[in-house]
Predict the 3D structure of the following.
Amino acid sequence: MTTRYRVEYALKTHRRDQLIEWIKGLLAVPFVLHSQPTAVYDSKPRNHVLGKMASTARRRYAEILHDVEELINDHIALQKSGTQERSKLKHLVPSVGLFFTPLLLERAFEYQDEKRKISSRRFVPPSFNDIRLILNSAQVMSLIQGGPLQLVTFDGDVTLYADGQSLTPDNPVIPRIINLLSQDVKVGIVTAAGYTEASKYYDRLYGLLNNVREAVLEKELVDPCLIILGGESNYLFKFDLSSEHCLEYVDRENWMLPEMSQWTEENIKTLLDVAEKALRECISNLGLSAEILRKERAVGIIPTSSAHRLTREQLEETVLVTQQVVEMSPAAKNLPFCAFNGGNDIFVDIGDKGWGVLACQRYLGGIEGSKTLHVGDQFLSVGANDFKARLACTTAWIANPAETVQLLDELATHSQSNGTQ
Ligand code: IMP
Ligand code: MG
């Protein structure tokens, strides 16, 4: 393997989303052909030149997204007949997985183009973020069209609140979540944060829990369904007015998936021992100012002082080494795990958010993947923990809590215009 190949492929592909990169490549062609970087020298009125450029680019981008939409429809049809290896999309983008719904990409492009003026740009081609947001809008539109949406699960850090912070009462996501609950949409918070005590979740989520409590007391909400699944797929709590901290612990027997009975204490200990050893070696080899935090179902490293920031390189190297060591060990044959970079810490958790979302769906009466949306910030294929939720349901990839708020507003707007809610 040449060095260049290793750097470009082996070490970087996990940091790119193949579907998004592929769409970006398709849209680059009309951008190159129709953008007008030289319009400033043109003798014709500039507005005329730019207006024509924008309308041509818009038409071409929309056509391409329409074609991608059709390829996804074809992929879904083959998925249903169990012959997805014949899918043309799979040939073009080998890493594509399951699609739980079609994606209304052409309509979503028109919506995002109106907001972001993608086709009016002369120097900046359609970007990763443009396409990520088009995919999110397309997902929301498709969920509403195929409705009703029954469950929305949210990641915690970076999705609902800033990294390492708490969901405080002034967070604008709160009225949006209450709105979902009032429409009979069930809400789950599927977070890596793994605590056995309700008080710890209350400390992180008190703004939301107190507001939901008030809405119930004021009779604005009747019997809202709000649950928290912590430690990726390990601890379930449900909102309950009469419980301390408004949260009631739900015994594993009541929600566990049959496969989880294989997650024996012995297997868990063996896997966490392997992970701990790998993390300790990274601390020593990379000279990290970090210490081990071992929990019942997780092991991680956190900086020795809360003011200390680990560098991106340290975090990435550690998560990649640890992922590889655990994956290669016999312990990983018996148990799913998730190694991820938490921004200023690294954790290896037992289970993952795929199992977490599946457990929520089962506990809530068997909700399907096509009626569930998981919103998260970590969708890269290695070192990220929301990625596995793609095995259980539709997803939206946001970059910060403000985008989560925008996404929920989009959901509400499209639902209203569709007349579903
Ligand atoms: P998420 O973004 O909601 O999935 O939360 C991830 C963050 O939770 C991590 O970056 C950690 O800072 C924190 N955390 C606390 N306890 C745990 C644990 O047991 N496993 C993984 N992350 C944890
Ligand atoms: Mg997160």
